Amino acid sequence: MARNSGPVLDVQKLQVSFRVETGLLKAVDGLDLVLEPGEVLGIVGESGSGKSVSMLSITDLIKKENRDTSGTARFLGADSVPRDLLTMSRDGLGKIRGKDIGFVFQNPMSSLNPTMRVGNQIAEGMLHHGAATRSDVKEKVVGLLDKVGIREPAKRYFSYPHELSGGMRQRVMIAMALSCNPKLLIADEPTTALDVTVEKQILELMMKMKDELGLSIIMITHNLPVALNYCDRILVMYAGKVMETGTALDLVSHPGHPYTKALFSSNLELGKRGTRVEPIKGNIPPLTHLPTGCRFHPRCPLATDKCRNEAPPAAAVNGGGTGPDDHLAYCHYPL
Ligand SMILES: Nc1ncnc2c1ncn2[C@@H]1O[C@H](COP(=O)(O)OP(=O)(O)O)[C@@H](O)[C@H]1O
Ligand SMILES: [Mg+2]
Question: Are the C-beta atoms of residues 312 and 294 closer than 8 Å to each other?
Answer without folding.
Answer: yes
